What we know:
The protein is of the alpha/beta class. The chain has a single domain (3-339), classed as Aldolase class I (TIM Barrel, Alpha-Beta Barrel), CATH 3.20.20. It contains twelve helices and ten strands. The protein is globular. 48% of the residues are buried.
Amino acid sequence: MPTENVLQSTIDAIVQDGKGLLAADESGGTIAKRFKTIDVESTEENRRAWRTLLLSTPGLGQYVSGVILYEETLAQQADDGEPLPSLAARHGIVPGIKVDTGKIALAHASGDEITQGLDGLAARLEKYKAQGARFAKWRAVYNVSDTLPSRLAIQANAESLARYAAICQEAGVVPIVEPEVLMDGGHSIDRCAEVTEAVLHEVFHALHRHAVVLEHMLLKPSMVLPGKAHGRQASVEEVATRTVSVLGRTVPPAVAGIYFLSGGQTPREASAHLDAINRTGRRPWPLSFSYGRALQEPPLAAWRGKPENVKAAQQALLERARLNSAAARGRYDAKEETRT
Ligand code: 13P
């Protein structure tokens, strides 16, 4: 099949009304941090058990059309020997893979960071495709203060995101472009809006330079929010209108879909914000979720590493996925929140 058709069929499988993505691509350090909150040691077997639990949740495919995996998971198997990517695909969930190799300090730009992983990426993609991955993710992070991120960080990260996206498309893998403006810090919602607009503007400029086909990529942005330590928190409606306004100014309508990250919001906040965003009126792109913590926190708390809790954990995941699916249609009702 020509590469454009491969990319289009993956986009068609992922972009479905009322469906979003499950981000389960925590690197070794991050999953250890998440497991520590429930007193579970991060061994390969525990990570396999957790991710098998997520992917084998009955009915998850009603609300989730794709899952972002970590390299280790691509090679792992469920108890019956089925490879985890094939378990996901059997539930109607397209397997994807995080391909960046993490962030380091950006030289000559104190406080800024840059994401690595371009060297050898084309060869790695061939291996990931053979293991079942059809899309990829690369995350750039931007620390916010009165002076951060610098122009240099905005430009350097945009260039890396665009090179990554071009390499993926050439390999027939749909790129998810993830520029995350962090919620950490005491900045205002105005400052977040200003930084997010500058970041997205630069990202799309770079994507154009690298001839990335917008119809064959997905954007995974952060929402426009005040920093966690800011004195005044914003209303749900304010977050929605500021987010949609920044996206409208920077993201071309040709982009196949926008899938937000949750970035440290509570599960309920992430659902309420997505819902309000979808209630703001007609938009050129589907606006859905690609949540990690906001989908996994309730099931993780229910599981606690115990096989007898698997069913309860799966129910908690399914419930969160259902509520976010409703939010992706602008039909979430906070009154339906029960235990999660
Ligand atoms: P969160 O929703 O927890 O921010 O995770 C999404 C993700 O993939 C971060 O790279």
